[in-house]
Amino acid sequence: MPQELLDKLDYGDSTRRNQPFLQDTAKIAFVAEIKGPHDCQIIGFAMGGHRREGPSEYTGELYGIYVLEKYQRSGVGLRLLKRIAQSLYGGVHRSMLVWVLKGNRAVGFYEKLGGVVVDEKDLNLGGKNLRELAFGWRNLEGLANQLS
Fold first, then answer.
1. What is the pairing mode between strands 60-67 and 96-101?
2. Sequence-distant contacts of 140-146: CB under 8 A, at least 24 apart
3. Is the pTM of this model over 0.90?
4. What does the alpha-carbon distance between residue 80 and residue 61 come to, in Å, rounded to a whole number?
5. Contact, 133 vs 127, CB < 8 A?
6. What's the pLDDT tens digit per position in 46-93?
């Protein structure tokens, strides 16, 4: 995502926008944290639930996953993805997709895990035209087992 768009993000707006999500029991969220001597620090999160859009054969969706840069490539993202995959599979889903901006470093992450591009769409954020790719997994149980 372009840096100028990231710079415009507002924590308060984000909190208000995500409040309904956190109260919806059909959606799931996991937080990764490290414990310090006096408190905990959140280092990542992942959210998922029913597919919002995209090919109908993919019923579950990883809505988003984020890990602080300092903790990327340490296995935190894999553990978060595993929890989402297990939770979706343990519910009603047998497949999953995730939307990611073309050119994002996460593209390689999803490709290494066997995700294949199953859809594409244009996205306009703050006047910027961007391309999103949907990576899909038809066998969610297999993905969850692969991450174990």
1. parallel
2. 140/60, 140/85, 140/88, 140/89, 140/93, 140/94, 140/95, 140/96, 141/89, 141/94, 143/85, 143/96, 143/113, 143/114, 144/82, 144/85, 144/86, 144/89, 146/113, 146/114
3. no
4. 14
5. no
6. 999 999 999 999 999 999 999 999 999 999 999 999 999 999 998 789
Break the chain into its structural domains and give their ranges.
3-146
Place of tokens 């993000």: 9
At 126 the three-state DSSP class reads: coil
Quick one: the chain helix, strand, coil %, rounded to 5? 35, 35, 30
CA distance 146 to 140: 10
Listed in order, strand segments (DSSP E) in 26-145 are 28-35, 40-50, 60-67, 96-101, 116-125, 128-137
The CATH class for the domain spanning 3-146 reads alpha beta
What Cα–Cα distance (Å) separates residue 30 from each residue in 18, 33, 65, 84, 126?
14, 10, 9, 8, 28
Residue 63 near residue 45, CB atoms below 8 Å? no
Interior angle at CA 23, CA 21 and CA 28, nearest 5 = 60
